[in-house]
Amino acid sequence: MRSCIAVALAAASSLAIPSPAQAQTSAIAHGIEVKRGSTIMRVTAIGDAILRVRVAKDGVFPEDASWAVAADVRARTAPVRPTANGFATAAMRVAVDPATLRMTVTDPTGQVITSDTLDPLTIEGKSFTLRKAMPQAEHYFGLGDKTGGLDRRGKSFVDWNTDAFGFSGSDDPIYKSIPFFIGVGGPGGSYGLFLDNSWRSWFDFGHRDANVLAFGAHDGPIDYYLIAGPSTAEVVRRYTDLTGKAPLQAQWALGYQQSRYSYMSADETKAIAARLRSDRIPTDVIWLDIDFQDRNRPFTVNPVTFPDLKGMVGDLGKDGFKVVTITDLHVARAVNQGYRPYDEGAKGDHFVHNPDGSVYVAPVWPGPSVFPDFTRTATRDWYGTLFRKQVDDGIAGAWNDMNEPAIFDTPTKTMPLDIVHRIDGDGFAPRTGTHAELHNVYGMQNTRATYEGLRKLQPNERAFVMTRASYAGGQRYAVTWTGDNSATWDHLKLSVQQIINMGLSGFSYGAADVSGFAGGPSPDLLTRWFEIGAFYPVFRNHSAKGMPRVEPWVDGPQHLAIRRRFIEERYRLMPYLYGLTELNARTGDPILRPVFYDYPSAMTMSCDQSMTFTLGKGLLVAPPPKPESPQAYEICLPAGGWYDYWTGKRAGAAQGDVPGPVQSASQATGDPRTRGDVFTAIPRLDQLPVFVRAGTILPRQPLVQSTAETPAGPLSLDVYPGADCRGDLYADDGHSTAFQSGAFLRQTVRCTVTPKGLTLDFEAPVGRYVPWWKQFAVTVHGWTGASTVSVTGRAIASAPDPAAQTASFTIPAPSAATRITIARR
Hints:
By secondary structure, this protein is of the alpha+beta class. It has four domains: 9-143 and 178-243, glycosyl hydrolase (family 31) (Immunoglobulin-like, Sandwich), CATH 2.60.40.1760; 251-584, Glycosidases (TIM Barrel, Alpha-Beta Barrel); 594-693, Immunoglobulin-like (Sandwich), CATH 2.60.40; 713-824, Sandwich (Immunoglobulin-like). It is built from 13 helices and 50 strands. The strands form nine sheets. Strands 1, 6, 7, 8, 9, 10, 11, 13, 16 and 17 form a ten-stranded mixed β-sheet that branches. A hairpin with a 2-residue loop joins strand 6 (81-83) and strand 7. Helix 6 crosses helix 8 (435-457) and helix 10 runs parallel beside helix 11. The longest helix is centred in the middle third of the chain and has 23 residues, at 435-457.
């Protein structure tokens, strides 16, 4: 944290500045309060490494309420030790200059985490600006799915949820408002800052002033949290402690998903499903966009083109397919037409209003439409009941689109700012608020209503909701995607950067429309997108109406073979992927991560890493940074040693004709386990460089055609010896909430290199769930010569492969703590 929570009062044209003599500083419970004239700054510790800063502009603090941070979290406290000019926690020291209100936050050794500028706060009417110093070496990430590249430094952004069809790589704002960023690379380590303000806000990372990090809002509370690291991972975990963890998704949500705007009939949908199965393309989900509905009206079904939706869903389910349907938030204004959502909504006064008290009506897909008042508890509860018919029909999940909210035929693309919403709950006293205040949380509250409704309708099942718009904390209710992207190489690259920053912003389940939504991809672009998309947290192929088809088979057998191979690899990796989702639910660690998340030294490596990412800690995926170009490119592998995922051999070994990167002539000398390594790769359309960290024990499974199919055979454990060698196994039934009461299996496996070979230690399984596997097929990589394998002293057969440099054996899955010894002979 470079500057903690410094909120010094700089002159504002509408504000007289009291003299320093008028400043009063007092210790309060768990923090400090500074009064300067009518302005009060209050800094409190809600954890050893989390500070909350609030400023009363006129001497009166706004109500202590939040859409993002729950009341019990806001009420947390940490012990503090008063100091001469502030206080200290176990992890931070806070100093405030009462003459200027300038705040500096350091770690216990005195390294600056974050520091305000000399003029840290300006208040002009209802708007405010906060300023912090911006060290030369610091870089910035987060803010959700903003465009503009991976690093936010040198750029500025606005938070205002916007229907941004056809957005470019530099357009802003777009769909989400997540006012949270992470500073990385400063002297005090990584830190995070979350501005909890739902009004239109902005962030400037040295765009206008190269040395100043500025942010503010047009109205609303000055209320923000400063989160210390020192690692990026610790910042993200603490941010999700504040705003909530994403719930564990059903395992089928990790499978390949096929969509289009739109599959126009039940016959077309079933034909798509049949082709997926006949072509042996593993798939779990088919999505239905708005054309499955009657006249685009949410909560309806077209009786002509989908005459028996329930029957179709049931038939697809027998073949391992789930069906997810779109439900936009607008409701057709269908007076006296027997349309339940409108009739019930009007009777219950559930729609937002114009300033004159009339119901707001505006055009969207169904024509004239009205809009539920989602900031109202009663409305959310009512809205959730509307999903009853979909649940009864077997629909597996809900897709909330258009929820910025998007409005047609208006230059702002959304509601007028004076539209009136009603507010209750979340710490807010019952009152009304304008759309200017609630615009950025409207989509999140839409997904909240959907998620909570599905959970009530099926209390023993996990709820799947996908959203386009959201706010900080929205990860509690929905997965998300990057919206209406384009079929271009630039958008393929942008998708990786957006998903990385969404993961750092709490939204670990990120996706982008594979192929691009608008426009038609070339065969090569579509194939490359399938390859990279196979490593997205959510893997959905989706395209717009009137655009070329983009199903996997559209460009002939050669492209299909490559695309299918990567989809298959995702299914083989399902045990690893599912373990990452469970880890995310417990800790907040993203599924897809920037390389520096687990390997901070990567920040100083020379390669263009704008497309490189890790899947968990164990896998590193290195697509070309210019994906459209055949030009050779460098791959930087952080210190610790790596193996080629495809060959299983140590990265840097002679590859010959085996797919994989070629060692660069410029490779530095020394041990790659301590300094990292650099390779040169020559792009080939049928290859994607993927590496496994030395020290990884990677679980994989036999190929299936959907997660509904039980794998046949043992669970594979690929052991890549190295430091901190371990693997974590997790399993449950994949769909219910029974895991919350102990119906899961969690087991850790560790490996240790010994003078004679290797030992594997299986910890005793935890939990009462019995997984599908009965055996482990173990492969030790980087092995030369013959081997002797013994389980608790009993010898078992093993099979060395000198060409692959492996030793392999199969054992029963241990039900108690077990040691296996692999010795060279």
